[in-house]
């Protein structure tokens, strides 16, 4: 498995299970309907765990453009590999979101509210406030990348295996994401990952969903810009504190 393929597969698994738990909790007539925020945050943590387990040995399991950019800014990942990683992450995210739509098609049809349907795919603020929503995404991603940089170094090993996020082991990364979701996720849904939000948002715009409503494009830049800024700040802070 090449790093490019590993990032596709890992991000696909992340989104299949992450958007999957969103669907299970939010859509009508699922067995998990209405089970709440703890189930969502736990499902996303397990989604991270699964993606990292599979992709970690082959790509470092970034699964997130913000992580890739943060590691590159910190000098822990080759800058010329950033575009291919981000492309792979977006491909994986879109494929995962598409699969979630496909297997839940009957439940999308059974759900009336368009915002609820969109929430399966992408984020929206609980209370719209551009500055505070952006700040939340910055801080959430800062925590993620800062912790990653303190737990491990992203290096090229002797056999040319890229060691990055995956070298932490899957469980610690999942726990960090779980903690971010529980503590900081209630205001924006904690995208903390540009591919996690934008990739599925594009799928939401493309697939046929009855009464799907708005795609939320006016908000869509925040889950992209916020995580990138947060990752860059985390990288700079980690270098300053070395």
TrEMBL record:
Belongs to the MIP/aquaporin (TC 1.A.8) family. Its main location: membrane. It comes from the Bacteria. Pfam families: MIP. GO terms for molecular function: glycerol channel activity. This is Aquaporin family protein. It is found in: Membrane. PROSITE patterns: MIP.
